[in-house]
Amino acid sequence: MSPVTEAPNATASLSEITHDEIFAGHLGGKLSVELAAPLETQRDLSIAYTPGVAQVSRAIATDEALSKRYTWTDRLVVVVSDGTAVLGLGDIGARASLPVMEGKAALFKKFAGLNSIPIVLDTKDSDEIVETIIRLRPSFGAVNLEDISAPRCFEIEKRLIEALDCPVMHDDQHGTAIVVLAALNGAAKVQGRDINGLKVVVSGAGAAGVACTNILLAAGVQDVTVLDSKGVVNRERTDLNEVKADLAQRTNPRGLTGSAAEALAGADVFLGLSAGLIAEELIASMAPEAIVFAMSNPDPEIHPEVAGKYAAIVATGRSDFPNQINNVLAFPGVFKGALDAGARRITEGMKIAAANAILGVVADELGPEKIVPSPLDPRVAPAVAEAVAAAARAEGVA
């Protein structure tokens, strides 16, 4: 299949989109329910509803497994949030988070053909969130957790994975990590380097920072240093929560201490996953041919044009600069592949397979301004789904 091409002006900066245009695009919400079977005649009504539907319900009551075939649950993803960590907006509440969740559901349909329903919960209590989702289990086939604040998100995801017999993934963690790994592999290939030898600095020890660190370590990167708001996460610090203390044991092999200045001096890669700004002189202190992923949205940790004065490859989370690292490259295909395979969970191997598939789409097209495909590239989701399904079968979770 040939590379995707976009119409002129298809990519616009936010400054070129009007206030009225944005709100018009959300008027009445972004989702609707469409019929999968005709409902035009009395016969149609008798099949879809009473009395015909009673036969299907009796059959499922006898054999619950039939619900996968005769309802939409087998292909339905629920997008669940409590609105506590939405984009770069923070804790804005359940109702204000709903437009984001609707958008996520729309992307599932557009890129993977999966039905999806947004559910926002008016509680921050982890027990209540977990119990609610467990009780809703007969209604869906997979759970996409979204925009739940750290460290609560780690506990909620872990408990749901243990409690449910279906795929569960917190996309802020793992979707980001998958695309970051694909992008870093792409950047390394452009430069003829091996990611194993790169010195990587991860700025941010929240949901995305932890997951990106974990997947980079799993992929073979040996030198990862993590920064939080107080500096380098290291074994000497006594102010670390359980998650950060675990990171300190598995990262920072050179035993660095101090701030971003100490971490970035001579580093090969900067991975920005926090709202904090990075000074120009710190990027200038990085190693030659540096790679900068400034992914905070909507305002990157350092402006791409400034980073480009010193770095050989720059990527952001924005659509109006080259090399957009966007979760939509991962999550539609990941969930489709997991559901296609009947996977009970999403494993680390499935995530790495997804990252490799994303990069594989543009393997012959790589360049400094194209280290990952466009989020609109129609080749991505099918390739990811196929790779994820194969990995699920190989790992025995299908």
Can you describe what's shown?
The protein is an alpha/beta fold and 398 residues long. It has two domains: 105 residues, Rossmann fold (3-Layer(aba) Sandwich); 228 residues, Rossmann fold (3-Layer(aba) Sandwich). The protein is built from 16 helices and ten strands. The chain has a six-stranded mixed β-sheet. Helix 15 packs antiparallel against helix 16. The longest helix has 21 residues. It is globular. The N terminus is likely disordered.
User: Which strand order do you get reading across the main beta sheet?
Assistant: 7-6-5-8-9-10
Overall 3D form: globular
Which CATH top level class of the largest domain fits?
Alpha Beta
SSE run: HHHHEHEHEHEHEHEEHHEHEHEHHH
Let me know the average pLDDT.
92
Write the CATH homologous superfamily of the largest domain: NAD(P)-binding Rossmann-like Domain
Proportion of β residues? 5-15%
Radius of gyration: 22 Å
What's the tally of helices? 16
Q: Characterize the biggest β-sheet.
A: 6 strands, mixed
In the CATH hierarchy, the architecture of the largest domain is 3-Layer(aba) Sandwich
Termini Cα gap: 29 Å
| Category from helices, strands and their pairing | alpha/beta
The CATH topology of the largest domain corresponds to Rossmann fold
Question: Would you kindly provide a brief summary of this structure?
Answer:
By secondary structure, the protein is α/β, with parallel strands linked by helices. It folds into 2 domains: 62-166, Rossmann fold (3-Layer(aba) Sandwich), CATH 3.40.50.10380; 171-398, NAD(P)-binding Rossmann-like Domain (Rossmann fold, 3-Layer(aba) Sandwich).
